[in-house]
Amino acid sequence: MKDMKIAGANPDIKLIACDMDGTLLDKNGSISPAARELIWRLADYGIVFSIASGRMPHRIENHVGSFLPREQQNYIACNGAIVVYRGTVILERRFPVKPYRNLILDYVRRGLEFSFDYDDAYRPLFASEHTIRQANHIHGYSR
Question: What is the DSSP string of 5-28?
C-alpha cells in the first residue's frame, strides 16, 4: 500500500480526528469499507487517525476494535475527558462530584434520573424503569 497516494495529502498533517455519529458511521452504525481503507492508508503516511466522540470508550472500541489492532487505536472519548493513544489511556479527567452534591440530591428528591458515566460504565444513582431497561442494552452498565 505504500505506493498508493492519498490525493492532496499534505505532509504537515499529523493527526485527523473524526466524529462517529453522522460522520464516520453510516445510517446503520457501520464504518464503510472505503473509510476503513483510508484509515489504514493514513498510517502509511505517518498520519494518526483518531475518533473524537462523546461516547464512552467501550462504545468507540466496539467499532475501531473490529478493524484496527490495539496499537493503532486512538480516540478521544467522553467529550474530551478520556484520551487514548495507541490503545493506552494518556489522559483522564474525572468530573468532581462534591461541588454538585446539592444539585444531585435535588434531582433525586424530585424523582429525576441522574447517572454518572465513569470507569467506562453507566452508573445511575437509583434504579428506574428506564435504567432497568438500559441494563439490558448497555455494555458497561453498573448500579
Answer: --TT--TT--EEEE-IIIIIB-TT
Strand, coil or helix: 90: strand
Three-state DSSP state, 135: helix
Please report where in the chains the cell 472500541 appears, as a residue.
Answer: 61
Grid coordinates representing 38? 483510508
Residues 6+ apart with CB under 8 A from 32: 26
List of domains in the chain: 15-92 (3.40.50.1000), 98-135 (no CATH)
Whether the model clears a pTM of 0.85, i.e. scores above it, the answer is no
Q: Are 67 and 33 in contact (CB under 8 A)?
A: no
Residue 49's nearest CA partner among 60, 59, 41 is 41
Q: Is 11 helix (H, G, I), strand (E, B) or coil?
A: coil
Question: How far is the first Cα of the chain from the last one, in angstroms, to the nearest whole number?
Answer: 47
Quote the cell numbers at residue 56.
Answer: 464512552
Tell me: the pLDDT tens digits for 15-26? 999 999 888 988
